[in-house]
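Hey, resending since the last one bounced:
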Amino acid sequence: MSDDLLVQIASLPDRDNVVVEIFQSDRQLAEVYYESEEEGVRIQISPLKDGVIDLDLTDFISALIKAKSNLVNC
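The structure tokens again:
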């Protein structure tokens, strides 16, 4: 991924299940999680205080697909 997106599994104290976090450098861009069969896989986008996020669309989609795959395989 040319935007150096990091996709990592995390176990957070406020979640019942593991989540997958997506980072660009040291900024968390998103958290992908699975709550229930009814809700499916969800994503929370982290807002920035200092502007906009500019990413290559293909890289971000690849990161989301990897995040979803990591959740399904947990």
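DSSP finds one helix and four strands in the chain.

Sorry for the duplicate.
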